[in-house]
Design goal:
- The structure is a homotetramer of 347-residue chains.
- The first copy, chain A, contains eleven helices and 14 strands.
- Chain A has 347 residues and is an alpha/beta fold.
- Chain A has two domains: 62 residues, ACT domain (Alpha-Beta Plaits); 257 residues, TIM Barrel (Alpha-Beta Barrel).
- In chain A, strands 13-12-11-10-9-8-7-14 form an eight-stranded parallel beta sheet.
- In chain A, helix 8 links the parallel strand 12 and strand 13.
- The relative contact order of chain A is 0.12.
- Chains B and C meet through helix 8, helix 10 and helix 11 of B and helix 8, helix 10 and helix 11 of C.
């Protein structure tokens, strides 16, 4: 595939000429990004890359065999660093700690959790309002009422919020309220939903499907990037294997692997990844040591009362203990990175 | 869980009283089905089942521990037999043979295939207009134009059509045109989509997710049944395992297993299930011998020209050969069933 | 790789010259088979195959990229048909029905089962004397006493016996007593054991490992073939996947797949493959319809008293019912094969 | 199950009486360990545990539902700490760093590697002399010659050696030469081999099978413990999953999980676990952060010349870099443990 970057301020006629050039040769193409400085992704014209480069308005042309040209480090060598809010960034050494309950259950529950996790060091509040439940008769979340409560918690604490979106139909009204749109593992190949969030400019947290290969995961990200939304955060949350001693098999080796082949930030969810609260702290430590850009942790003031996922939720106290250890670990890891270690992918 | 069947012609006040009875005891409930003779599914009131039975208007009360009470044979012991068209039924010994191309590619391609497979014994035409492709730059199907071509093929041949729906947003305009709505493997846990097709009264072909357990598959079916649509056909299409010598691992043992625990018809897709055309015939034979209610076979007039899945498509000639062998096999199997063999699940 | 077949009656000097020719060029080599008409397998000399063919005493030279040259149909296109006893053959349309208890438990149990399954149509008696149990405190089999009982059953019924061997140390004393040496799934990659049975001339039943790819399975067979023992029967017994609704996932598509790439006979064990007795009959039917060369079925006079695997054992009556259906099915399948159907792999 | 610990200096008559007591009640039993202070493991007499405790010579009686009573922390709450050599211990905070080539290939290769890894901080030398290769025509290791070279390297450097044993037949001559007997992943369920190494008193490194559950792994360890050898080191080396982007899926969550349910030390092999050299350092860091008792790392002076596994071998320089980072990380982790963190399992 070719990724053609047009020069800043290029004219629309120049873009049209490149497209015409590609179409005449029977190559597929897609224009991505801003009007000022768009990218053109093309499949099938790899051999005439040099000719394309000589066309007016073309800045760079990169060729790649990866099926995810926009997500690949071959095309964009630098870490993709972007803002969640004015103050909070992700990627390139900026860590994202998302914490909060599996489901928003009540006003007091979400407000108590939000102010608690903020004090203890989280910089994003998580909470589910629309819950993808295996069983139709299980609690399906508070819906729009849950969103209202999250917004209230955000106003009270200043924490940006991340919540799951389950259908393209919900996007229009949901988007203005949330700071990060979450695509759940079960929807990683819901291509209609991926296309929808690709049309927004909100950051998207893309969870890895429980049976998705690394290649499939990055192609799911590519759906969003190809829509013009470059703010994608990948989240490893465990895959399905034959062993049921943990809820899922947390595949930490994808952290350094994906970071070596893609510029996108990768965070880890050890709560879903293990399903057992006593494993969350050690696996959080392991995730950070493997080079993760952040964590997503389920925290509930009273886990035994949780309507979903109580067995994998930490109390506020346990979350505080985890943050202390993670912070100490990260101070060593940060020192490592400053040293010329030659190994960008992990530390 | 309790499944409460109200008597035909029961009064709305009687339904309301049952609901009130359950709610007072803190049990969840859901009313399903026609106004004349609805079902009430309730969770948590198993101990007062006998009291419920004594309420006016209640016909039967069944208790089950299965998380899919409406899909379970415990609740509905008889095979779920229903019409696709006036002439064509599925379930209870009525076989469904769906054949056609992976994607609708052109008018001539779909018309040629449709008339070919009809002559050779298919009773449903398959064809994808909206294609769930792993890569955003791959051919995504002809969309609404493809639907028009399918409708034309249906008018020409009389074959009912099955095609995939990828988003709740498409349902309104798509529903009147197609005879069976297909939910693809990647969307088996797209609960927004399951709820949407549960609100229609069109038959739904629910493919097993590539990572779905039998329990999860039947709970996905339960989402549709709980919406009031009882016309669900399950389709085994191979699961993902460690072995890549076939595209997927066709799990035929779920055919007798699911038929023993559920009343829903189960068909098999050996094309996706193996991904290799030379394996389609033997695995079709095996599927029927295992007790399947039908097959879904990819057929293309010229597989090497197919825009997708050419490697797993049969020519019309090969499909004819397959049908001949399957018919001969089924004549023996039908004879078996007549004998009092005590083993309903397979033959 | 090259497979060099020496002419019948070739001289040892001629064999030596071929070996010398290969070694001078730095290629690995191994001499396999009888003194009269040996094969030489060589790795690395593919380019000089024609030169090798011109050496004295060389009959044929076949080149293959498969890592299992002796197991491959590229090298040996015809079905590998061989004798179990003077009367019983396997492969090429000769069906092997192995039946008997998981473990030999007592004299009366094995004698009753043996005479029962013989009457009902089995042609080999199975029974475990050395049991590979996951737990060290579980019943480990009767050991040599169990072998004695199997031998007595064989004398009484005339049925040849198949039993598992767990260690190279047991081979010397075990070999004279049994007709087929079984390698269990857990030992499929016990290469010391594979080499040991490769040195015998007894038929070997090689079960597929629960985590083995098709390529690994055929290379395990190659270990035995490379030892000079060409009598290998492959047995699919289910692989391990994420789904636990059956004990293992019976992967029937390997039957036509393996038979298309290898000349070795393939049988199916639906007892271990499903772990549920109600699924054994339908999956036996499916296995035969997929083209299997036989079945291995656990039968116990009183399954509820079995010391191991009772849940997956048939009674003699159920086995009789299964055999009747299988025989009826096979009569159709045999008719198919006579027709010029062009599809050797399945029917 | 019951684990009955006899008092130090108990009389053989007292042991016999306990056994008699258990046998009369139809319970299975096994006597394990030294003559002075043996354990008796019994299945089926859980209800009379108190009676057993009152028998003469009995010190303690523990009841557990785990199928691996000797490997369980319920029975032995303290970390199992034991010596590899007089100077080197494993478990309870003592770290084992095993490094060396996949295969011993030549005298210079193993001597150069041994002195290199010793200088850089390894405390055990690994090297394969008998190699379990999937293909019978691949390099199978130098065999006894390889053992001689390992012994020479041990004499030169003082490093104890670990090497794989593939057959019970090799045990007698191999045992005196090596310090740790390795059971490979493919032989984790080779019960004849497990029983054989259970009869020695050498430490055993038991790799997890590529498709073994945690329960199966601990029961494999139990085979060795039940033979009277308590010196078992568990080694996670990656499991097989659907994703092939890494050679295996390194399942780090088993480190804290197994350490919480068993007293045995757990080390991690990121070389086999990932199969990609660039992932070895980050996954080593992650393993230690998750609480591992050590690492096993493949090191080769010139990986591109390696006869096996070159793609996953580090150079000496890379190994030095890894050790530096690991040491820095461990200094933080050690500090953690001193704090009263209440979470024994990881740090």
């Amino acid at each position: 595939m070719l990724v053609i970057h047009m020069a800043r301020g290029c004219k629309s006629l120049e873009v049209a000429r490149v497209c015409d050039f590609l179409e005449r040769r029977g190559c597929s193409l897609r224009v991505v990004g801003s009007f000022e400085s768009p990218y053109i992704v093309s499949n099938g014209c790899e051999k005439v890359g040099n000719l394309v480069l000589s066309l007016p308005g073309v800045k760079t042309v990169t060729s790649t065999k990866k099926p995810y040209p926009l997500a690949s480090r071959e095309t964009f060598p630098d870490d993709n660093v972007f803002h969640i809010t004015e103050d909070i960034k992700v990627g390139g050494g900026h860590r994202l700690i998302m914490a909060g309950p599996c489901s928003v259950e009540s006003r007091s529950q979400i407000l108590e959790t939000a102010s608690g996790v903020k004090t203890l060091g989280a910089n994003v509040l998580r909470g589910g309002a629309f819950k993808p439940r295996t069983n139709p008769y299980s609690f399906q979340g508070l819906g729009s009422e849950g969103i209202n409560l999250l917004v209230e918690a955000k106003e009270k604490t200043g924490l940006p919020i991340v919540t799951e979106i389950m259908s393209p139909e919900d996007l229009e009204w949901l988007e203005p309220h949330v700071d990060i749109l979450q695509i759940g593992a079960r929807n990683m190949m819901n291509f209609a939903l991926l296309k929808a969030v690709g049309r927004t400019r909100k950051p998207v947290l893309l969870k890895r499907g429980m049976m998705a290969t690394v290649d499939e995961w990055l192609q799911a990200a590519e759906y969003i990037l190809a829509g013009g939304n470059h703010k994608v955060i990948l989240c490893e949350r465990g895959i399905r294997s034959f062993d049921t001693s943990t809820r899922n098999t947390l595949d930490l080796s994808v952290v350094p692997l994906v970071k070596s082949i893609s510029h996108l930030p990768v965070i880890v969810d050890p709560s879903h990844g293990t399903g057992r609260k006593e494993l969350i702290k050690p696996m959080s430590m392991a995730a950070m040591a493997a080079g993760a850009d952040g964590l997503m942790i389920e925290v509930h003031p009273r886990p035994h009362e949780a309507l979903s996922d109580g067995a994998q939720s930490l109390t506020l106290e346990e979350f505080g203990d985890l943050m202390e250890s993670v912070n100490r670990l990260c101070s060593v890891l940060d020192e490592e990175v400053k040293a010329p270690c030659g190994l960008r992918i992990a530390m």
